[in-house]
C-alpha cells in the first residue's frame, strides 16, 4: 500500500471535503500506481470535481 505514509494527510482531506477515507485512499493509490487522472477517477467512486479537490489539497500539504 503506497498511501500508508500519507494517512494523516488523507484523514485531513477526507474530513475537510466530507469524503470517505477509503475513497480518497483508493483514488490516491491509483494515481501512485501510475494511472492517469481520468483512469483514476473512473477507478473510484469520487466525482471528477472531488478528485481535483483532493489533488489541490495534497499539493497544499506536500512537504517542501
Describe the structure.
This protein is mostly helical. Helices cover 67% and strands 0% of the residues. The protein contains 4 helices and no strands. It has helices at 7-17, 21-32, 37-42, 48-61. Helix 1 (7-17) packs across helix 4. The protein is globular and about 25 Å long. The termini are far apart. The model has no long low-confidence stretch (mean pLDDT 91).
Descriptive terms for the model:
mainly alpha; 64 residues; 4 helices
CA-based shape: globular
CA-atom Rg in angstroms = 11 Å
**Separation of the first and last Cα atoms:** 23 Å
Number of helices: 4
Backbone structural class: mainly alpha
Biggest sheet layout: none
Query: Into which percent range does the helicity of residues fall?
Result: 55-70%
Structural topology:
Layout: H1 7-17, H2 21-32, H3 37-42, H4 48-61
Helix pairs in contact: 1-4
Give a concise summary.
The chain is mostly helical and 64 residues long. Helix content is 67%, strand content 0%.
Amino acid at each position: 500500500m503506497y498511501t500508508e505514509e500519507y494517512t494523516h494527510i488523507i484523514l485531513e482531506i477526507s474530513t475537510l471535503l466530507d469524503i470517505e477515507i477509503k475513497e480518497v485512499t483508493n483514488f490516491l493509490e491509483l494515481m501512485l500506481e501510475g494511472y492517469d487522472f481520468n483512469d483514476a477517477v473512473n477507478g473510484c467512486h469520487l466525482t471528477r470535481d472531488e478528485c481535483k479537490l483532493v489533488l489541490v489539497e495534497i499539493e497544499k500539504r506536500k512537504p517542501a
